[in-house]
Design goal:
Layout: E1 4-11, E2 17-21, E3 27-30, H1 33-47, E4 56-62
Parallel strand pairs: 1-4
Antiparallel strand pairs: 1-2, 2-3
Length: about 70
């Protein structure tokens, strides 16, 4: 068992946030960063058997930005 899961976090077009676990079929979203964190914890708890979930959930925030020359 891996001791951590990395989540790829992106801003959604509607101002919310989406999270996708790398290497696991775990997806969730939230209207705020705090709600997203809680939803990630809930999604991981639901995905794994009791006492089998990794202890560390690492959030990798990715923001796309375009600038004009």
């Amino acid at each position: 068992m891996n001791n951590e899961i990395i989540f790829y976090i992106e801003d959604a077009d509607d101002g919310t946030y989406t999270a996708r676990a790398l290497g696991y079929p775990i997806f969730t979203d939230g209207e705020s960063i705090e709600e997203l964190r809680n939803n990630i914890r809930d999604a991981v708890t639901c995905h794994f058997e009791e006492n089998q979930a990794p202890q560390i959930l690492r959030l990798h925030f990715v923001r796309e930005e375009a600038i004009a020359l």
